[in-house]
Amino acid sequence: MAQFEDIHQLDFFQPLPADSVREILAKGSLRVYRQGDIIIEEGRTRTRGLYIVLSGQVKVIKRITDRESKTLAVLRAGEVLGEMSIFEDQPHSATAVAMRETSVLLLSREEVQAFVARDLELGVRLLVKLLQVMGMRIRALNEQVTLLGSMALSLRRRNLPMD
């Protein structure tokens, strides 16, 4: 695993004090995935928790049909996935696959909730960071929806008779 100093410099951990980062690392579960391993599977609820990418790369994909999927994101060290499972009891909305050997720290939903209950300041910082991540992802999805809407409108106009 990377050195503490390297981990503390990752984007997710930067706003947190060193003692809090050490506590999170101690409470979390380190998982190492090989290239092609599934970390989270769409439609499943196997593990509820926050995955923090410590090293490697993760491709997040959404199934469109049985044979087709769309890449939603490529996540790198310091980015998170599974954040929605902290807030809701729903199956995973996408699949996450290791693109190469990848280390993640898994914080269970219960552990995140315990951090919030134990240390309000740390809890608020964690939740604010998660809300920032979710906000960024919603903005990116809004851009994709706008682009798809424009493309659909353009295609529809081409098929309409001109007066």
Short description:
42% of the residues lie in helices and 26% in strands. By secondary structure, the chain is α+β, with helices and mostly antiparallel strands.
Describe the structure.
The protein is of the alpha+beta class and 163 residues long. It has one domain (4-159): Sandwich (Jelly Rolls), CATH 2.60.120.10. The chain has helices at residues 4-8, 18-27, 84-87, 109-118, 120-159, and strands at residues 29-33, 38-40, 49-55, 57-63, 69-76, 80-81, 95-98, 102-108. The strands form two sheets. A four-stranded antiparallel beta sheet has the order 1-8-3-6. Strands 2-7-4-5 form a four-stranded antiparallel beta sheet, with no helix packed on it. A hairpin with a 5-residue loop joins strand 4 (57-63) and strand 5. Helix 4 crosses helix 5.
